[in-house]
Amino acid sequence: MKTILETFAEYFSNSTFEQLPPEVVEKTKLLIVDYLGVSIAGLKMDFPRMTIDYLQSLEGVAQSTLMGATRKVPAIHAALGNGVAGHALDMDDGFRYGGVHAGVAVIPAALAVAESLKLDGKKLILSIVCGYEIVNRISKAMNPSHLGRGFHTTGTIGVLGAAAACGVLFGLNKEQMASALGMAALQSAGLLEILNDGAMVKPLHPGKAAMGGVLSVELAKRGAKGPMTALEGEKGLFKAMADSVNTDGLFDGLGSDFYIMGQYIKFHAACRHIHPAIDGLLDIMRKEKISYQEIDALNVTTYPVAISFCGTSALPETAEAAKFSLASSCAMAAFYGDASEERYSVETVQNQEIKNLATRVTSAANTRWAEAYPRERGANIELRTTSGQQFFTEIPLSKGEPENPATDEDFIRKFKQNTSTQSEQLSNQILEMSLALDSHAVSELTILLGTLKEN
Predict the structure, then answer these.
(1) pLDDT over 90 for what percent of the chain?
(2) How far, in Å, CA of 352 to CA of 333, rounded?
(3) HSE of 299, CA atoms in CB hemisphere, 13 A
(4) Which long-range contacts (CB under 8 A, 24 or more apart) does 332-338 make?
(5) For all residues of the chain together, what is the average pLDDT?
(6) Cα separation of 443 and 35, whole Å?
(7) Can you state the percent helix, strand and coil of the chain, rounding each to 5?
(8) How is 317-380 classified by DSSP, letter by letter?
(9) Which of 14, 72, 151, 382 has a CA that sits 20 to 30 A from residue 55's CA?
(10) What is the DSSP letter of 399?
(11) pTM for this structure?
């Protein structure tokens, strides 16, 4: 009987671009656009700059493009650095049934390896689809228990997707692929204590996942053997990292029901669990023409995971921590009219008007949203004005979910906002190349990424 990793490995090693439906190809290209946009914007943040500075100081073969760097670096280093940059804004795509951000681990690893191997865009797209497949399916099986134990799924399971994608690019056979996935599982890491202290370095999780995927495949193709039962074994990842795992239907529709189609994209630069509250708050303010000065109190009722991640009443002291503060992010959105990436700054965190408003934001979980999670990740928003008026709205799913979808124009608008510090010509060239990637070599895209200026 095949193990879970062997089953995935057999599918990945036999997959071809021609098997992908057109809508899967198009969605993948849009997610590449989204990833590149948030990565380019993330280059201005402190931790990506620290990471790039370190990676550039190392010697190594010039294989792949590290965004924001002045020269090429080894593929494994590009995967690390570009994974860090992609998660710095907390605006990367995700999958609500798994509580995971597959793209920021899978895409940087795949992009780095595809460039180093001089492959075409079709092969890159296929590899990314495969990477999302294992990340989302395994994350869905393990959560919410895995998150509840304190693990950051993007780091722990993202490494499996990075390995799958790189294995496809290298053309591993099923035995090599299974070994690569087994070694990737051994490197699963990422602790959510980072939400309580040290939020700046949270992007290290997907960066290391991307890097671990490259390493696993490089070793597997040289003959290293990873454990086939790394997931379901007696001392495997499932038992070590979750109290309950549901593998029923794990392989249902594999090869026909592509999980990448379930990805959401984000329009606020905050933890996804805050988005329904921001959406509802801004909806009320716009419809009723309410200014932030008129808000006397705001109460948000949502699902327990959102409260666990973001419901602390303590006000954040850093921009990174503000991304995980429901009160601070809602106050910021009310003050500015949006919660875009430029809002999360030291100046905003120290703004006394925003801090005062944040103290009037309360949040709690209730049974309605607990029972709906993760089918719905929503919130009730109650706003009371200083004149005593009360307004209410309910947001079952934030903008960008498949059921409340982003349009192609939404993807493009977000990309252009995130690349606004670059020249309009370069931004348009990257966009156009990404959207036509199945007709180009990966190097045509990475040449453009190598000309990015520091934000």
Answers:
(1) 95
(2) 14
(3) 10
(4) 333/268, 333/278, 333/281, 333/282, 334/281, 334/282, 334/285, 334/292, 334/295, 334/298, 335/292, 337/282, 337/285, 338/268, 338/282
(5) 96
(6) 17
(7) 55, 10, 35
(8) SSHHHHTT-HHHHHHHHHHHS---GGG-SHHHHH-HHHHHHHTTEEEEE-HHHHHHTTT---EE
(9) 151
(10) T
(11) 0.95
Query: Over 80: is that where the pLDDT of 454 sits?
Result: no
CA dihedral 311, 303, 150, 142 (to 10 degrees): -160
Supply the DSSP string of 151-206, one letter for each residue: B-HHHHTHHHHHHHHHHHHHT--HHHHHHHHHHHHHT---BGGGGTS-GGGTTHHH
Q: Are 1 and 232 in contact (CB under 8 A)?
A: no
Helical segments of 117-157, H only: 121-142, 145-148, 153-156
- Give the number of other Cβ atoms within 10 Å of residue 258's Cβ: 21
- DSSP for residue 269: S
Q: Write down the pLDDT at residue 455.
A: 62
- The one-letter amino acid code at 282 reads L
Question: Mean pLDDT over residues 398-406, rounded?
Answer: 95
Amino acid at the residue 75: A
Residue 146: C-alpha distances to residues 130, 157, 210, 244, 312 (Å): 22, 10, 20, 8, 21
How far, in Å, CA of 455 to CA of 453, rounded? 6
The rounded distance, in Å, linking the Cα atoms of 373 and 168 is 34
Q: What is the spatial distance between Cα 30 and Cα 320, in angstroms, rounded to a whole number?
A: 26
Find out whether 300 and 333 touch, Cβ atoms under 8 Å.
no
Nearest to 270 by CA among 400, 423, 77, 122: 400
Instruction: Tell me whether strands 295-302 and 361-365 are parallel, antiparallel or unpaired.
Output: parallel
* 294/289 Cα distance (integer angstroms): 10
Question: Which value, to the nearest 10 degrees, does the dihedral of the CA atoms of residues 148, 140, 82, 128 take?
Answer: 170
Contact (Cβ atoms closer than 8 angstroms) between residue 419 and residue 68: no
- The DSSP bridge partners found for residue 151 are 191
Determine which helix (DSSP H) or strand (DSSP E) holds 446, and give its type and residue range: helix 442-449
What is the signed CA dihedral for 347, 351, 355, 357, rounded to 10 degrees? -120
Strands 295-302 and 379-385: antiparallel
